[in-house]
From TrEMBL:
Keyword vocabulary terms for this entry: Heme, Iron, Metal-binding, Oxidoreductase, Peroxidase, Signal
Family matches, as InterPro entries: Ccp1-like, Haem_peroxidase, Haem_peroxidase_sf, Peroxidase_I
Entry protein name: Peroxidase
Residues covered by the Plant heme peroxidase family profile domain: 36-173
Single annotated GO MF: metal ion binding
Length: 505
């Protein structure tokens, strides 16, 4: 299991996206098997993930789940509106540390639970987005069995796994003549055409195939050349399909294979260990900025709701000199937000909701802050739990380049970030900003992109408390997050700013 050592922007983003409800569309849109375009969002997402993975070549190690589908979705092999629509679903979520490909993979995990309630597929992060299209290697129904065996072999799956993975995939969604003109569907009713009239993660696709009652056009369609499921399913005399007739086996095999499918990445990509909900998490809105002769320090500790009535105390130590008592300076939470909703995936892992304990500490300007930790009291006589980033403390790397949410301005007229630098010498400050592009134009998919914006000396905010302030260019539309960079007195500093405001600003 991946261990979270704060700060870790990638794990931080992925864990929120997986387990905090509404944090990312990837964990919500596909729930309840929501219908779209004569199919379901879940089916579209699962097909998107497979088609993204299908560029993998196990021999060269190239391709796989890398988001290259964003450059390939207009190909005939990716026909149908589901590809573009699904890419649009995911395009709001990426930032500088997590790309589209991780969200496409997360979409597959949520598609499976969203339509069937399970099985739960482990999620690993760290995929890298491709910058161009991969080869056109998605299998097509008019190809013969030998080609399909070859395609799956290239993708890293043997013949038995091919049979199973196709059965798993085709237990979702439908085949629509309009989207796939190669398939002659005069013998299949129009409208919603789901395999075996079922939507969901069950093995009807298998049992109806075996009993001869299937309406799957890739099995019984009148165009014999596009009966690819028939050729694949029967390729080992139905031995695999018979095994999959057990619902438990089907669920186990599908969880395993879809898991392998989303973890099929270019060989130079190293995925994290599976990401489970973090017990204790310092949330995104942790900020340190000068204010009226001291430093304001805002932070929040998120705890999984556990039925105990807990009290949390924030502790911190000085950066230089002595100011705090030997046990550290401390303060109680000023706000507790109970009942932060967990995602469906989190509830399937036993997490019902989270409590957020927020702090607004005033830090001595001269001695500043080097690190912080928390004590969680159970109010039942038991010893408090020390939450200290797994023994490494929550370290404030630096207080030289800071983001100042109070001096920043966010109005309809425009959004401007203000940063402070702890020097009076002139400094070049830039922000590496992720935005999601406009819908429409040349590329209808609002793919996330990165731009650099610069800062100028802030005439509205004179130097104060040892800091000089710089204001950004107007933030671009569809700003999502940024990382600040500056070289100050010969040393390079950077600061991830995942969010522009915090409770207590
Ligand atoms: C030889 C391999 C495969 C062939 C020839 C094939 C072919 C097709 C075709 C023709 C459609 C209908 C497309 C449309 O009408 O829009 C379809 C739908 C679908 N396929 Fe496959 N497929 C294959 C493997 C897979 C695999 C391995 C998966 C995932 C594990 C998968 C997942 C899906 C899903 C979820 C749909 C429904 C999409 C929707 O309803 O929006 N397919 N496939």
């Amino acid at each position: 299991v991946a261990v979270f050592h704060w700060p870790d922007p990638m794990l931080d983003t992925l864990e929120d996206s997986l387990y905090v409800n509404h944090f990312s569309p990837a964990s919500t849109f596909a729930l309840n098997c929501t219908a779209r375009d004569n199919s379901t969002i879940a089916a579209q997402w699962l097909r998107l993930a497979y088609h993204d993975m299908a560029t993998h070549n196990a021999t060269t190690g190239l391709g796989g789940m890398d988001g290259s589908i964003a450059f390939e979705y207009t190909r005939a092999q990716n026909i149908g509106p589901g590809m573009a629509e699904s890419l649009i679903d995911f395009a709001v979520s990426p930032n500088q540390y997590v790309g589209m490909s991780d969200f496409i993979a997360m979409g597959a995990v949520n598609a499976v639970i969203g339509c069937g309630g399970g099985p739960v597929i482990p999620f690993r992060g760290g995929r890298k987005d491709a910058t161009e299209a991969g080869p056109a290697t998605v299998p097509e129904p008019q190809q013969d069995l030998a080609s399909h065996i070859d395609s799956f072999k290239d993708q890293g799956f043997n013949e038995t796994e091919m049979i199973s993975l196709v059965a798993c995939g085709h237990s979702f969604g439908g085949v629509r003549k309009v989207d796939f003109p190669l398939i002659v569907t005069e013998d299949v009713p129009t409208g919603i055409q789901t395999f075996a009239s079922k939507i969901g993660f069950d093995n009807t696709v298998v049992t109806e195939y075996l009993s001869g009652s299937t309406e799957n056009v890739l099995v019984v369609g009148s165009n014999v050349s596009t009966r690819s499921d028939l050729r694949i399913f029967s390729s080992d005399n139905n031995a695999t399909m018979q095994r999959l007739a057990s619902l438990d086996t089907f669920n186990q095999v599908c969880a395993d294979l879809i898991g392998r499918m989303i973890d099929t990445v270019p060989s130079d990509v190293q995925l994290t260990e599976p990401i489970e909900p973090f017990d204790y998490k310092v949330t995104l809105d942790t900020m340190l900025f000068p204010q009226g002769g001291s430093l304001a320090f805002l932070t929040t500790l998120r705890i999984i709701e556990n039925g105990k009535n807990q009290t949390v105390t924030l502790f911190w130590k000085e950066r230089t000199g002595t100011f705090c008592p030997s046990e550290g300076c401390s303060i109680s939470a000023f706000h507790v937000n109970t009942g932060v909703e967990a995602s469906l995936l989190a509830t399937l892992k036993g997490v019902q909701s989270f409590n957020q304990h927020s702090f607004n500490a005033s830090i001595d300007l001269a001695t500043s802050i080097s690190h912080f930790w928390f004590e969680v009291g159970n109010n039942d006589g038991s010893a408090p739990i020390i939450v200290d980033n797994h023994g490494t403390n929550f370290t404030i790397d630096q207080d030289v380049l800071i983001f100042d949410p109070r001096r920043s301005s966010f109005t309809i007229a425009g959004e401007f970030m203000v940063v402070g630098v702890k020097t009076s010498s002139p400094v070049d400050v830039t922000a590496f900003v992720t935005t999601t592009g406009p819908i429409g134009g040349v590329n209808p998919i609002p793919m996330p992109s990165n731009t650099t914006i610069s800062f100028t000396l802030d005439s509205a905010h004179p130097p104060a408390d040892g800091y000089t302030f710089y204001t950004s260019d107007r933030l671009p539309n569809r700003y999502s997050s940024s990382t600040l960079h500056a070289t100050i007195d010969g040393q390079a500093y950077s600061l991830w700013v995942p969010t522009l405001s915090a409770l207590g600003v």
